[in-house]
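User: Can you fold this complex?
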Amino acid sequence: MSDAAADPSRRNWIAITCGAGAVGGVAVAVPFISTFTPSERAKAAGAPVTVDISAIKPGEKLTVEWRGKPVWIVRRTPEQLESLKKTESQVADPNSDRKTYPTPEYAKNQYRSIKPEVFVGVGICSHLGCSPSDRFAPGAQPSLPDDWQGGFLCPCHGSTFDLAGRVFKNKPAPDNLEVPPHMYLSDTVVMIGDDKKA
Ligand code: FES
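Assistant: Here's the predicted assembly.
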């Protein structure tokens, strides 16, 4: 990312491709949208990014860029939402009370989202800034517990997050994944970077 200097608060994030073998067999499209209006300059200065999420199918994730950071939009399936009940007792901060990356009030719920099915989160590990990998397929697999419910694995030091971006207990990451300020402009259009009407 070349605009690191534009936002002093941002950490460098490192996209790590880690042995992305198709172990789970779940096909997840991961399009990456790198160009948006407003202009690159405005965006680097922190302008909100507007995203049409209508094409994201259940179980898929879209990554967009906001302030030089990857923001994930995941449309969770009913099963994935159900998995959050199971991980509730395994995560370090189930109610998003920690303050390192304060969770907006409207996302302080089990889903950490406005609409239960749509998770919007910054894809940067709260430990040292790596970008965690998708591990959406449940079940035993390398580097994950046998009762894995689906979520994200940070390959750098092994922090794991559930499908609401909640960090599991006893991991190096000190906090959940950040939920950026965002709001819906319509049923299918979300604005990232702003959460109040002008
Ligand atoms: S940067 Fe993610 S676990 Fe260290």
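The first helix runs from residue 40 to 44. The chain has a mean pLDDT of 84.
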